[in-house]
Design brief:
It contains 19 helices and 13 strands. It is α+β, with helices and mostly antiparallel strands. Among the domains are: about 160 residues, Immunoglobulin-like (Sandwich); about 210 residues, Rhopdopsin 7-helix transmembrane proteins, CATH 1.20.1070. The strands form 3 sheets. The chain has a 6-stranded antiparallel sheet with strand order 3-2-4-9-6-7, with no helix packed on it. The chain has a 4-stranded antiparallel sheet with strand order 1-10-5-8. The chain has a 3-stranded antiparallel sheet with strand order 11-12-13, with no helix packed on it. The two termini are about 50 Å apart. The N terminus is likely disordered.
Protein backbone atom coordinates (compact mmCIF):
# COMPACT_ATOMS: atom_id res chain seq x y z
CA UNK A 1 0.00 0.00 0.00
CA UNK A 2 1.44 3.42 -0.95
CA UNK A 3 2.22 5.90 1.79
CA UNK A 4 0.06 8.64 0.21
CA UNK A 5 -2.98 6.31 0.24
CA UNK A 6 -2.37 5.45 3.91
CA UNK A 7 -2.22 9.17 4.72
CA UNK A 8 -5.57 9.81 3.01
CA UNK A 9 -7.18 6.89 4.87
CA UNK A 10 -5.74 8.17 8.16
CA UNK A 11 -7.11 11.71 7.64
CA UNK A 12 -10.54 10.30 6.71
CA UNK A 13 -10.73 8.17 9.89
CA UNK A 14 -9.56 11.12 12.01
CA UNK A 15 -12.34 13.35 10.60
CA UNK A 16 -14.96 10.63 11.18
CA UNK A 17 -13.94 10.16 14.84
CA UNK A 18 -13.94 13.91 15.43
CA UNK A 19 -17.32 14.35 13.74
CA UNK A 20 -18.94 11.46 15.63
CA UNK A 21 -17.65 12.80 18.94
CA UNK A 22 -18.99 16.29 18.15
CA UNK A 23 -22.39 14.87 17.21
CA UNK A 24 -22.51 12.97 20.48
CA UNK A 25 -21.49 16.06 22.46
CA UNK A 26 -24.33 18.07 20.86
CA UNK A 27 -26.95 15.51 21.86
CA UNK A 28 -25.90 14.94 25.48
CA UNK A 29 -28.53 17.31 26.90
CA UNK A 30 -31.29 15.23 25.37
CA UNK A 31 -30.82 12.40 27.95
CA UNK A 32 -33.50 12.63 30.66
CA UNK A 33 -33.75 10.33 33.70
CA UNK A 34 -37.09 8.55 33.39
CA UNK A 35 -38.56 5.07 32.93
CA UNK A 36 -36.17 3.46 35.44
CA UNK A 37 -37.80 0.08 34.86
CA UNK A 38 -36.63 0.11 31.24
CA UNK A 39 -33.24 1.80 31.59
CA UNK A 40 -30.12 0.51 33.36
CA UNK A 41 -27.73 3.48 33.02
CA UNK A 42 -28.29 7.25 33.03
CA UNK A 43 -25.70 9.90 32.20
CA UNK A 44 -25.79 13.19 34.11
CA UNK A 45 -24.33 16.00 32.10
CA UNK A 46 -24.56 19.74 31.71
CA UNK A 47 -28.35 20.18 31.85
CA UNK A 48 -28.54 18.52 35.31
CA UNK A 49 -25.34 20.06 36.80
CA UNK A 50 -24.96 23.36 38.67
CA UNK A 51 -21.74 24.76 40.10
CA UNK A 52 -20.80 27.07 42.99
CA UNK A 53 -17.18 28.30 43.13
CA UNK A 54 -15.75 29.09 46.58
CA UNK A 55 -14.16 32.51 46.87
CA UNK A 56 -11.41 33.45 49.22
CA UNK A 57 -9.62 31.16 51.64
CA UNK A 58 -12.62 30.24 53.84
CA UNK A 59 -13.89 26.75 53.22
CA UNK A 60 -17.67 26.43 52.86
CA UNK A 61 -19.16 23.36 54.54
CA UNK A 62 -22.30 21.45 53.59
CA UNK A 63 -24.41 23.08 56.34
CA UNK A 64 -23.68 26.52 54.93
CA UNK A 65 -24.56 25.27 51.46
CA UNK A 66 -27.96 24.09 52.69
CA UNK A 67 -28.79 27.04 54.96
CA UNK A 68 -27.17 30.10 53.39
CA UNK A 69 -29.63 31.52 50.86
CA UNK A 70 -26.94 33.78 49.40
CA UNK A 71 -25.09 30.79 47.99
CA UNK A 72 -26.36 30.39 44.48
CA UNK A 73 -25.48 27.44 42.24
CA UNK A 74 -25.17 28.47 38.63
CA UNK A 75 -25.90 26.28 35.59
CA UNK A 76 -22.93 25.39 33.44
CA UNK A 77 -22.18 27.88 30.70
CA UNK A 78 -20.95 25.17 28.38
CA UNK A 79 -23.51 23.20 26.41
CA UNK A 80 -21.44 20.03 26.68
CA UNK A 81 -19.16 18.56 29.32
CA UNK A 82 -17.64 21.26 31.55
CA UNK A 83 -13.95 21.50 32.35
CA UNK A 84 -13.09 23.74 35.29
CA UNK A 85 -10.79 26.69 34.85
CA UNK A 86 -7.17 26.07 35.80
CA UNK A 87 -7.34 28.75 38.51
CA UNK A 88 -10.37 27.16 40.22
CA UNK A 89 -9.36 24.70 42.95
CA UNK A 90 -12.33 24.51 45.34
CA UNK A 91 -15.92 24.37 44.09
CA UNK A 92 -19.23 22.59 44.68
CA UNK A 93 -21.37 20.63 42.23
CA UNK A 94 -25.11 20.21 42.78
CA UNK A 95 -27.24 17.59 41.01
CA UNK A 96 -30.97 17.49 41.71
CA UNK A 97 -32.80 14.21 41.03
CA UNK A 98 -36.31 12.89 41.37
CA UNK A 99 -36.70 10.29 44.10
CA UNK A 100 -39.13 8.32 41.95
CA UNK A 101 -36.19 7.10 39.95
CA UNK A 102 -34.65 5.24 42.91
CA UNK A 103 -37.75 3.48 44.23
CA UNK A 104 -37.01 0.56 41.90
CA UNK A 105 -33.86 -1.58 42.16
CA UNK A 106 -30.56 -0.47 43.67
CA UNK A 107 -28.67 2.43 42.05
CA UNK A 108 -24.96 3.37 42.03
CA UNK A 109 -23.68 6.93 41.57
CA UNK A 110 -20.33 6.96 39.69
CA UNK A 111 -17.70 9.66 39.06
CA UNK A 112 -15.66 8.34 36.08
CA UNK A 113 -13.05 11.13 36.24
CA UNK A 114 -10.18 9.52 38.17
CA UNK A 115 -7.89 12.60 38.23
CA UNK A 116 -9.33 14.32 41.30
CA UNK A 117 -7.33 15.68 44.22
CA UNK A 118 -10.20 15.26 46.67
CA UNK A 119 -13.98 15.02 46.36
CA UNK A 120 -16.54 14.80 49.19
CA UNK A 121 -19.98 13.44 48.30
CA UNK A 122 -23.26 14.10 50.14
CA UNK A 123 -26.85 12.91 49.55
CA UNK A 124 -29.58 15.23 50.75
CA UNK A 125 -33.33 14.55 50.79
CA UNK A 126 -34.91 17.97 50.55
CA UNK A 127 -36.49 18.80 53.89
CA UNK A 128 -35.23 15.65 55.57
CA UNK A 129 -32.00 13.60 55.71
CA UNK A 130 -28.36 14.64 54.95
CA UNK A 131 -25.82 11.85 54.54
CA UNK A 132 -22.08 12.02 53.82
CA UNK A 133 -21.40 9.01 51.62
CA UNK A 134 -17.82 9.19 50.30
CA UNK A 135 -14.49 11.02 50.50
CA UNK A 136 -11.83 10.01 48.00
CA UNK A 137 -9.24 11.20 45.47
CA UNK A 138 -5.51 11.32 44.77
CA UNK A 139 -4.85 12.83 48.22
CA UNK A 140 -6.30 9.80 50.07
CA UNK A 141 -5.15 6.21 50.49
CA UNK A 142 -7.15 3.93 48.25
CA UNK A 143 -8.02 1.44 51.00
CA UNK A 144 -9.89 4.18 52.91
CA UNK A 145 -12.63 4.22 50.28
CA UNK A 146 -15.88 2.61 51.23
CA UNK A 147 -16.13 0.95 47.79
CA UNK A 148 -12.89 -0.32 46.27
CA UNK A 149 -13.33 0.61 42.61
CA UNK A 150 -11.02 2.52 40.29
CA UNK A 151 -13.76 5.15 39.85
CA UNK A 152 -15.34 6.93 42.81
CA UNK A 153 -18.74 5.32 43.52
CA UNK A 154 -21.44 5.28 46.21
CA UNK A 155 -24.92 3.77 46.38
CA UNK A 156 -28.03 5.97 46.17
CA UNK A 157 -30.20 3.79 48.45
CA UNK A 158 -28.41 4.53 51.72
CA UNK A 159 -31.46 6.57 52.80
CA UNK A 160 -35.10 5.59 52.67
CA UNK A 161 -36.51 7.27 49.58
CA UNK A 162 -40.23 7.70 49.18
CA UNK A 163 -42.19 8.41 46.10
CA UNK A 164 -42.10 12.12 45.38
CA UNK A 165 -38.90 12.84 47.38
CA UNK A 166 -36.48 15.31 45.87
CA UNK A 167 -32.88 14.13 46.05
CA UNK A 168 -29.87 16.44 45.88
CA UNK A 169 -26.32 15.19 45.38
CA UNK A 170 -23.60 17.62 46.50
CA UNK A 171 -19.97 17.13 45.49
CA UNK A 172 -17.22 19.31 46.93
CA UNK A 173 -14.04 19.38 44.81
CA UNK A 174 -10.64 20.40 46.19
CA UNK A 175 -8.38 19.51 43.28
CA UNK A 176 -5.46 20.92 41.27
CA UNK A 177 -6.67 19.22 38.10
CA UNK A 178 -8.98 20.42 35.34
CA UNK A 179 -11.90 18.11 36.00
CA UNK A 180 -14.62 16.79 33.73
CA UNK A 181 -18.04 17.14 35.37
CA UNK A 182 -19.54 13.97 33.95
CA UNK A 183 -21.45 11.42 36.06
CA UNK A 184 -23.32 8.14 35.74
CA UNK A 185 -26.16 6.56 37.68
CA UNK A 186 -26.46 2.82 37.08
CA UNK A 187 -28.50 -0.02 38.40
CA UNK A 188 -26.39 -2.24 40.63
CA UNK A 189 -26.60 -5.21 38.28
CA UNK A 190 -25.68 -3.03 35.29
CA UNK A 191 -22.78 -1.49 37.20
CA UNK A 192 -21.41 -4.89 38.24
CA UNK A 193 -21.69 -6.21 34.68
CA UNK A 194 -20.01 -3.12 33.26
CA UNK A 195 -17.33 -3.05 35.98
CA UNK A 196 -16.40 -6.71 35.51
CA UNK A 197 -16.20 -6.23 31.76
CA UNK A 198 -14.08 -3.10 32.17
CA UNK A 199 -11.60 -4.77 34.53
CA UNK A 200 -11.43 -7.80 32.22
CA UNK A 201 -10.68 -5.65 29.18
CA UNK A 202 -8.08 -3.62 31.08
CA UNK A 203 -6.50 -6.86 32.27
CA UNK A 204 -6.33 -8.12 28.70
CA UNK A 205 -4.86 -4.80 27.62
CA UNK A 206 -2.02 -4.96 30.16
CA UNK A 207 -1.56 -8.69 29.55
CA UNK A 208 -1.05 -8.11 25.84
CA UNK A 209 1.40 -5.26 26.55
CA UNK A 210 3.40 -7.53 28.88
CA UNK A 211 3.43 -10.28 26.22
CA UNK A 212 4.69 -7.74 23.67
CA UNK A 213 7.46 -6.73 26.08
CA UNK A 214 8.53 -10.37 26.53
CA UNK A 215 8.44 -10.89 22.75
CA UNK A 216 10.53 -7.77 22.17
CA UNK A 217 13.09 -8.86 24.79
CA UNK A 218 13.48 -12.28 23.16
CA UNK A 219 13.75 -10.65 19.73
CA UNK A 220 16.38 -8.24 21.04
CA UNK A 221 18.44 -11.12 22.45
CA UNK A 222 18.35 -12.62 18.95
CA UNK A 223 19.14 -9.67 16.66
CA UNK A 224 20.57 -7.05 19.09
CA UNK A 225 18.70 -4.12 17.49
CA UNK A 226 18.53 -0.89 19.56
CA UNK A 227 15.06 -0.21 18.14
CA UNK A 228 13.76 -3.05 20.31
CA UNK A 229 15.17 -1.43 23.46
CA UNK A 230 13.25 1.74 22.65
CA UNK A 231 10.16 -0.35 21.86
CA UNK A 232 10.44 -2.06 25.27
CA UNK A 233 10.80 1.37 26.93
CA UNK A 234 7.73 2.57 25.01
CA UNK A 235 5.68 -0.45 26.09
CA UNK A 236 6.70 0.06 29.73
CA UNK A 237 5.76 3.73 29.44
CA UNK A 238 2.45 2.70 27.89
CA UNK A 239 1.69 0.47 30.87
CA UNK A 240 2.55 3.31 33.28
CA UNK A 241 0.33 5.78 31.39
CA UNK A 242 -2.52 3.28 31.37
CA UNK A 243 -2.17 2.63 35.11
CA UNK A 244 -2.19 6.39 35.69
CA UNK A 245 -5.17 7.10 33.41
CA UNK A 246 -7.22 4.15 34.70
CA UNK A 247 -6.32 4.84 38.35
CA UNK A 248 -5.33 1.18 38.70
CA UNK A 249 -1.87 2.08 40.02
CA UNK A 250 -3.31 3.61 43.19
CA UNK A 251 -5.54 0.55 43.59
CA UNK A 252 -2.97 -2.21 43.15
CA UNK A 253 0.59 -0.80 43.28
CA UNK A 254 0.79 1.90 45.94
CA UNK A 255 -2.57 2.26 47.67
CA UNK A 256 -0.81 3.41 50.86
CA UNK A 257 1.24 6.13 49.11
CA UNK A 258 -1.14 8.53 47.34
CA UNK A 259 1.68 10.94 46.48
CA UNK A 260 2.99 8.42 43.97
CA UNK A 261 -0.14 9.07 41.85
CA UNK A 262 1.20 12.50 40.93
CA UNK A 263 4.71 11.21 40.25
CA UNK A 264 3.46 8.44 37.96
CA UNK A 265 1.13 10.89 36.19
CA UNK A 266 4.02 13.29 35.55
CA UNK A 267 6.83 10.97 34.52
CA UNK A 268 4.99 8.21 32.60
CA UNK A 269 3.85 10.51 29.79
CA UNK A 270 7.35 12.03 29.53
CA UNK A 271 8.99 8.59 29.27
CA UNK A 272 6.45 7.56 26.65
CA UNK A 273 7.07 10.71 24.59
CA UNK A 274 10.86 10.27 24.60
CA UNK A 275 10.62 6.52 23.82
CA UNK A 276 8.27 7.11 20.84
CA UNK A 277 10.68 9.67 19.39
CA UNK A 278 13.75 7.45 19.91
CA UNK A 279 11.93 4.42 18.51
CA UNK A 280 10.81 6.26 15.36
CA UNK A 281 14.19 7.89 14.66
CA UNK A 282 16.00 4.58 15.17
CA UNK A 283 13.62 2.57 12.95
CA UNK A 284 13.63 5.19 10.17
CA UNK A 285 17.43 5.70 10.49
CA UNK A 286 16.89 9.47 10.49
CA UNK A 287 20.21 10.16 12.23
CA UNK A 288 22.17 8.40 9.49
CA UNK A 289 20.17 9.84 6.59
CA UNK A 290 19.42 13.40 7.75
CA UNK A 291 21.32 14.66 10.79
CA UNK A 292 19.62 18.09 10.77
CA UNK A 293 16.13 16.60 10.95
CA UNK A 294 17.28 14.19 13.66
CA UNK A 295 18.82 17.02 15.70
CA UNK A 296 15.62 19.08 15.42
CA UNK A 297 13.42 16.16 16.55
CA UNK A 298 15.62 15.18 19.51
CA UNK A 299 16.29 18.80 20.48
CA UNK A 300 12.62 19.80 20.64
CA UNK A 301 11.69 16.59 22.48
CA UNK A 302 14.39 17.10 25.12
CA UNK A 303 13.43 20.76 25.55
CA UNK A 304 9.80 19.70 26.03
CA UNK A 305 10.80 17.11 28.63
CA UNK A 306 13.17 19.50 30.43
CA UNK A 307 10.61 22.31 30.57
CA UNK A 308 7.83 20.00 31.72
CA UNK A 309 9.85 18.16 34.38
CA UNK A 310 11.51 21.34 35.68
CA UNK A 311 8.86 24.05 35.61
CA UNK A 312 5.51 22.21 35.71
CA UNK A 313 3.81 20.93 38.84
CA UNK A 314 3.12 17.25 39.45
CA UNK A 315 -0.49 17.57 38.31
CA UNK A 316 0.25 19.38 35.04
CA UNK A 317 -0.29 17.60 31.72
CA UNK A 318 2.54 17.26 29.21
CA UNK A 319 -0.09 17.15 26.45
CA UNK A 320 -0.72 20.87 26.96
CA UNK A 321 2.78 21.98 25.92
CA UNK A 322 2.44 24.15 22.77
CA UNK A 323 5.40 22.37 21.16
CA UNK A 324 4.42 18.84 22.20
CA UNK A 325 3.23 17.59 18.77
CA UNK A 326 6.03 19.22 16.71
CA UNK A 327 8.54 16.29 16.86
CA UNK A 328 5.80 13.78 15.99
CA UNK A 329 4.60 15.84 13.02
CA UNK A 330 8.21 16.20 11.76
CA UNK A 331 8.60 12.41 11.90
CA UNK A 332 5.30 11.95 10.04
CA UNK A 333 6.43 14.40 7.36
CA UNK A 334 9.74 12.56 7.06
CA UNK A 335 7.92 9.25 6.48
CA UNK A 336 5.85 10.72 3.64
CA UNK A 337 8.78 12.52 1.97
CA UNK A 338 12.21 10.99 2.47
CA UNK A 339 11.11 7.40 3.06
CA UNK A 340 8.52 7.54 0.29
CA UNK A 341 11.17 8.70 -2.19
CA UNK A 342 13.40 5.79 -1.23
CA UNK A 343 10.54 3.29 -1.65
CA UNK A 344 11.32 1.63 1.68
CA UNK A 345 8.77 -0.65 3.32
CA UNK A 346 7.44 0.89 6.56
CA UNK A 347 3.90 -0.50 6.40
CA UNK A 348 3.48 -1.89 9.92
CA UNK A 349 5.52 0.90 11.47
CA UNK A 350 3.42 3.56 9.71
CA UNK A 351 0.16 1.96 10.86
CA UNK A 352 1.37 1.90 14.46
CA UNK A 353 2.71 5.44 14.25
CA UNK A 354 -0.52 6.84 12.79
CA UNK A 355 -2.53 5.15 15.54
CA UNK A 356 -0.40 6.56 18.36
CA UNK A 357 -0.34 9.98 16.67
CA UNK A 358 -4.15 9.93 16.59
CA UNK A 359 -4.24 9.21 20.31
CA UNK A 360 -1.73 12.00 20.97
CA UNK A 361 -3.81 14.48 18.94
CA UNK A 362 -6.95 13.63 20.92
CA UNK A 363 -5.02 13.95 24.20
CA UNK A 364 -3.75 17.40 23.20
CA UNK A 365 -7.21 18.55 22.06
CA UNK A 366 -8.79 17.28 25.30
CA UNK A 367 -6.15 19.02 27.42
CA UNK A 368 -6.97 22.34 25.70
CA UNK A 369 -10.71 21.71 26.00
CA UNK A 370 -11.22 22.00 22.23
CA UNK A 371 -13.59 19.08 22.42
CA UNK A 372 -14.37 16.61 25.16
CA UNK A 373 -16.52 13.58 24.56
CA UNK A 374 -17.85 10.62 26.52
CA UNK A 375 -17.52 8.47 23.43
CA UNK A 376 -15.72 5.33 24.62
CA UNK A 377 -13.46 5.37 21.55
CA UNK A 378 -12.45 8.97 22.28
CA UNK A 379 -12.00 8.49 26.02
CA UNK A 380 -9.84 5.38 25.56
CA UNK A 381 -8.36 6.43 22.21
CA UNK A 382 -4.88 6.83 23.66
CA UNK A 383 -5.03 3.51 25.57
CA UNK A 384 -6.26 1.69 22.46
CA UNK A 385 -3.59 3.47 20.45
CA UNK A 386 -0.86 2.35 22.86
CA UNK A 387 -1.95 -1.28 22.57
CA UNK A 388 -2.29 -1.27 18.78
CA UNK A 389 0.94 0.68 18.39
CA UNK A 390 2.87 -1.84 20.46
CA UNK A 391 1.39 -4.65 18.37
CA UNK A 392 2.21 -3.04 15.02
CA UNK A 393 5.69 -1.96 16.14
CA UNK A 394 6.46 -5.54 17.19
CA UNK A 395 5.12 -6.81 13.86
CA UNK A 396 7.26 -4.26 12.00
CA UNK A 397 10.41 -5.50 13.71
CA UNK A 398 9.41 -9.12 13.12
CA UNK A 399 8.94 -8.36 9.42
CA UNK A 400 12.28 -6.56 9.39
CA UNK A 401 13.98 -9.56 11.01
CA UNK A 402 12.40 -11.84 8.40
CA UNK A 403 13.71 -9.67 5.56
CA UNK A 404 17.21 -9.58 7.06
CA UNK A 405 17.20 -13.36 7.48
CA UNK A 406 16.13 -13.87 3.85
CA UNK A 407 18.88 -11.51 2.66
CA UNK A 408 21.44 -13.33 4.80
CA UNK A 409 20.36 -16.73 3.47
CA UNK A 410 20.52 -15.44 -0.08
CA UNK A 411 24.03 -14.05 0.49
CA UNK A 412 25.15 -17.38 1.97
CA UNK A 413 23.81 -19.26 -1.04
CA UNK A 414 25.66 -16.89 -3.38
CA UNK A 415 28.86 -17.38 -1.38
CA UNK A 416 28.51 -21.17 -1.51
CA UNK A 417 27.89 -21.01 -5.25
CA UNK A 418 30.98 -18.81 -5.74
CA UNK A 419 33.12 -21.16 -3.63
CA UNK A 420 32.03 -24.15 -5.71
CA UNK A 421 32.98 -22.31 -8.91
CA UNK A 422 36.40 -21.43 -7.53
CA UNK A 423 36.96 -24.98 -6.32
CA UNK A 424 36.15 -26.27 -9.80
CA UNK A 425 38.67 -23.81 -11.31
CA UNK A 426 41.36 -25.04 -8.91
CA UNK A 427 40.63 -28.68 -9.74
CA UNK A 428 40.85 -27.93 -13.48
CA UNK A 429 44.23 -26.24 -13.01
CA UNK A 430 45.56 -29.16 -10.97
CA UNK A 431 44.39 -31.59 -13.64
CA UNK A 432 46.03 -29.46 -16.34
CA UNK A 433 49.32 -29.47 -14.46
CA UNK A 434 49.13 -33.22 -13.97
CA UNK A 435 48.68 -33.75 -17.70
CA UNK A 436 51.71 -31.62 -18.41
CA UNK A 437 53.77 -33.68 -15.97
CA UNK A 438 52.66 -36.90 -17.67
CA UNK A 439 53.53 -35.44 -21.06
CA UNK A 440 56.99 -34.40 -19.89
CA UNK A 441 57.60 -37.82 -18.31
CA UNK A 442 56.69 -39.46 -21.64
CA UNK A 443 59.19 -37.28 -23.44
CA UNK A 444 61.89 -38.30 -20.95
CA UNK A 445 61.09 -41.97 -21.43
CA UNK A 446 61.34 -41.61 -25.21
CA UNK A 447 64.63 -39.83 -24.85
CA UNK A 448 66.01 -42.58 -22.65
CA UNK A 449 65.00 -45.20 -25.22
CA UNK A 450 66.72 -43.24 -27.94
CA UNK A 451 69.86 -42.97 -25.80
CA UNK A 452 69.98 -46.78 -25.41
CA UNK A 453 70.07 -47.20 -29.18
CA UNK A 454 72.37 -44.29 -29.85
CA UNK A 455 75.37 -44.92 -27.60
CA UNK A 456 77.70 -43.17 -29.92
CA UNK A 457 75.84 -39.90 -29.45
CA UNK A 458 75.69 -40.27 -25.65
CA UNK A 459 78.52 -37.87 -24.97
CA UNK A 460 77.13 -35.28 -27.35
CA UNK A 461 73.64 -35.45 -25.87
CA UNK A 462 74.71 -35.59 -22.22
CA UNK A 463 74.94 -31.84 -21.79
CA UNK A 464 71.54 -31.38 -23.40
CA UNK A 465 70.02 -34.01 -21.13
CA UNK A 466 71.55 -32.33 -18.05
CA UNK A 467 70.08 -29.01 -19.11
CA UNK A 468 66.75 -30.65 -19.75
CA UNK A 469 66.82 -32.38 -16.34
CA UNK A 470 67.74 -29.10 -14.69
CA UNK A 471 64.83 -27.32 -16.34
CA UNK A 472 62.50 -30.18 -15.45
CA UNK A 473 63.57 -29.96 -11.82
CA UNK A 474 62.82 -26.23 -11.77
CA UNK A 475 59.40 -26.85 -13.31
CA UNK A 476 58.66 -29.67 -10.85
CA UNK A 477 59.55 -27.40 -7.93
CA UNK A 478 57.41 -24.64 -9.37
CA UNK A 479 54.61 -27.12 -9.95
CA UNK A 480 54.87 -28.37 -6.36
CA UNK A 481 54.78 -24.79 -5.10
CA UNK A 482 51.76 -24.00 -7.28
CA UNK A 483 49.96 -27.11 -6.05
CA UNK A 484 50.65 -26.04 -2.45
CA UNK A 485 49.36 -22.54 -3.19
CA UNK A 486 46.26 -23.96 -4.87
CA UNK A 487 45.64 -26.26 -1.92
CA UNK A 488 46.09 -23.27 0.41
CA UNK A 489 43.55 -21.24 -1.57
CA UNK A 490 41.14 -24.18 -1.48
CA UNK A 491 41.52 -24.48 2.32
CA UNK A 492 40.88 -20.76 2.79
CA UNK A 493 37.56 -20.96 0.96
CA UNK A 494 35.89 -23.60 3.11
CA UNK A 495 35.74 -24.71 6.70
CA UNK A 496 38.48 -27.25 7.55
CA UNK A 497 39.47 -29.14 10.65
CA UNK A 498 42.47 -28.31 12.78
CA UNK A 499 44.21 -31.47 11.54
CA UNK A 500 43.81 -30.33 7.90
CA UNK A 501 45.04 -26.87 8.76
CA UNK A 502 48.10 -28.43 10.40
CA UNK A 503 48.98 -29.77 6.96
CA UNK A 504 49.77 -26.21 5.92
CA UNK A 505 51.34 -25.15 9.20
CA UNK A 506 52.48 -28.42 10.86
CA UNK A 507 54.64 -26.75 13.54
CA UNK A 508 55.01 -23.49 15.37
CA UNK A 509 58.26 -23.00 13.46
CA UNK A 510 56.43 -23.09 10.11
CA UNK A 511 54.05 -20.44 11.47
CA UNK A 512 56.95 -18.24 12.56
CA UNK A 513 58.58 -18.69 9.13
CA UNK A 514 55.33 -17.71 7.43
CA UNK A 515 54.96 -14.73 9.76
CA UNK A 516 58.56 -13.67 9.03
CA UNK A 517 57.88 -13.86 5.28
CA UNK A 518 54.78 -11.62 5.57
CA UNK A 519 56.23 -9.10 8.04
CA UNK A 520 59.54 -8.47 6.23
CA UNK A 521 58.48 -9.24 2.65
CA UNK A 522 59.60 -5.75 1.63
CA UNK A 523 62.84 -5.94 3.62
CA UNK A 524 63.98 -5.29 7.17
CA UNK A 525 64.12 -1.77 8.57
CA UNK A 526 65.00 -1.09 12.19
CA UNK A 527 62.15 0.56 14.13
CA UNK A 528 64.61 2.57 16.25
CA UNK A 529 67.23 3.83 13.81
CA UNK A 530 65.85 2.87 10.38
CA UNK A 531 68.95 0.80 9.46
CA UNK A 532 68.27 -2.09 7.03
CA UNK A 533 71.22 -4.39 7.82
CA UNK A 534 70.47 -7.10 10.38
CA UNK A 535 71.66 -10.31 11.98
CA UNK A 536 69.84 -13.21 13.64
CA UNK A 537 68.23 -12.01 16.87
CA UNK A 538 67.12 -13.61 20.12
CA UNK A 539 63.81 -15.49 19.95
CA UNK A 540 61.80 -17.15 17.18
CA UNK A 541 62.89 -15.70 13.79
CA UNK A 542 63.90 -12.44 15.48
CA UNK A 543 66.18 -9.93 13.74
CA UNK A 544 68.80 -7.73 15.40
CA UNK A 545 69.88 -4.41 13.91
CA UNK A 546 73.61 -4.40 13.23
CA UNK A 547 73.80 -0.67 13.83
CA UNK A 548 71.95 -0.12 17.15
CA UNK A 549 71.62 -3.78 18.28
CA UNK A 550 67.82 -3.40 18.67
CA UNK A 551 66.28 -6.90 18.79
CA UNK A 552 62.86 -7.07 17.08
CA UNK A 553 60.61 -10.11 17.62
CA UNK A 554 58.85 -11.55 14.58
CA UNK A 555 55.50 -11.18 16.42
CA UNK A 556 56.05 -7.49 17.21
CA UNK A 557 53.49 -5.34 15.39
CA UNK A 558 51.28 -8.35 14.59
CA UNK A 559 48.18 -9.98 16.03
CA UNK A 560 50.40 -12.58 17.71
CA UNK A 561 52.43 -10.20 19.87
CA UNK A 562 52.64 -11.38 23.48
CA UNK A 563 50.78 -14.57 22.65
CA UNK A 564 50.34 -17.03 25.53
CA UNK A 565 49.35 -20.17 23.64
CA UNK A 566 50.72 -22.09 20.59
CA UNK A 567 50.99 -19.83 17.54
CA UNK A 568 49.65 -22.47 15.13
CA UNK A 569 46.37 -22.52 17.11
CA UNK A 570 46.34 -18.73 16.92
CA UNK A 571 46.83 -19.01 13.13
CA UNK A 572 43.87 -21.36 12.89
CA UNK A 573 41.72 -19.11 15.07
CA UNK A 574 42.47 -16.12 12.79
CA UNK A 575 41.47 -18.21 9.78
CA UNK A 576 38.20 -19.42 11.38
CA UNK A 577 37.08 -15.99 12.63
CA UNK A 578 37.93 -14.44 9.25
CA UNK A 579 36.10 -17.18 7.33
CA UNK A 580 33.05 -16.84 9.62
CA UNK A 581 33.13 -13.01 9.39
CA UNK A 582 33.38 -12.83 13.16
CA UNK A 583 30.13 -14.77 13.67
CA UNK A 584 31.46 -17.63 15.78
CA UNK A 585 31.25 -17.90 19.54
CA UNK A 586 34.21 -18.26 21.84
CA UNK A 587 32.59 -21.45 23.14
CA UNK A 588 32.74 -23.02 19.67
CA UNK A 589 36.37 -21.91 19.22
CA UNK A 590 37.28 -23.44 22.56
CA UNK A 591 35.65 -26.72 21.53
CA UNK A 592 37.44 -26.86 18.15
CA UNK A 593 40.90 -25.82 19.43
CA UNK A 594 40.66 -27.59 22.81
CA UNK A 595 41.46 -24.35 24.65
CA UNK A 596 39.95 -22.31 27.48
CA UNK A 597 36.86 -20.34 26.48
CA UNK A 598 38.14 -17.10 28.09
CA UNK A 599 41.40 -17.29 26.10
CA UNK A 600 39.45 -17.83 22.86
CA UNK A 601 37.14 -14.93 23.69
CA UNK A 602 39.99 -12.48 24.29
CA UNK A 603 41.92 -13.41 21.15
CA UNK A 604 38.80 -13.56 18.91
CA UNK A 605 37.86 -10.06 20.16
CA UNK A 606 41.35 -8.90 19.11
CA UNK A 607 40.84 -10.47 15.66
CA UNK A 608 37.40 -8.83 15.23
CA UNK A 609 38.89 -5.44 16.14
CA UNK A 610 41.61 -5.97 13.51
CA UNK A 611 38.91 -6.88 10.91
CA UNK A 612 37.01 -3.64 11.66
CA UNK A 613 40.20 -1.56 11.29
CA UNK A 614 41.08 -3.24 8.00
CA UNK A 615 37.56 -2.69 6.64
CA UNK A 616 37.86 1.01 7.42
CA UNK A 617 41.38 1.19 5.91
CA UNK A 618 40.44 -0.71 2.74
CA UNK A 619 37.03 0.94 2.38
CA UNK A 620 34.81 -2.14 2.33
CA UNK A 621 34.47 -5.75 3.43
CA UNK A 622 34.76 -6.88 -0.19
CA UNK A 623 38.25 -5.31 -0.43
CA UNK A 624 39.27 -7.14 2.74
CA UNK A 625 37.96 -10.44 1.33
CA UNK A 626 40.10 -9.99 -1.79
CA UNK A 627 43.27 -9.63 0.28
CA UNK A 628 42.55 -12.70 2.40
CA UNK A 629 42.96 -13.46 6.06
CA UNK A 630 46.68 -12.69 6.10
CA UNK A 631 45.78 -8.99 5.78
CA UNK A 632 44.69 -9.12 9.43
CA UNK A 633 48.08 -10.27 10.74
CA UNK A 634 49.97 -6.96 10.52
CA UNK A 635 48.35 -4.50 12.92
Amino acid sequence: MKLSLLLRIYIFILIQLFWSSMLQANTLDEIVIDNPQNEDVFFIRSSQVKVFVEKGSNEVDIQEILKDSTIQFQPLKSESIFITDQSIKEFWVKIQLNGNVFTHDRWIFEIPDSHIGEVQAYIHIVGDTLLKVEKAGYQHRFHTRNYKHKNIIFPMDQVNLRKGDKVEVYLRYDTPFQNVLFYKISKAKAFIRYSNTEYLMLGLNYGILVCLIVTSILLFLTIKDKFLLFLILFLLGSICIGLSEDNLASEYLFNNYPGFNYILLKFSATISMISIVLMATQFLEIRKENLKVYSAIIGISLLNAFYFLTFKTLNDSIWKLPTFLIPFLIILGYIFTERNQKKQQVKYFLLGYLIILTGLVFQVLRSYGIFVSANILIVYSYNIGLLLTGLFMTLSQTERYKILKEEKDKAQQELIKDLKIREKVIEDKVEERTEKIKSQNLIIENKNKELEWVNDELNQQRLKIQELNKQLKIENEKLHEDVEHLETARVLMQEVTFEEFEGMFPTDESCYNYLEEIKWKEGFQCKKCGHDDYATGTGHNARRCKKCNYNESVTSGTLFHRLHFPIKKAFYMVFIVYAKKGEISSTKLAEVLEMRQNTCWKFSKKINESMLRKKEELGSEEALRKQGWEALIIT
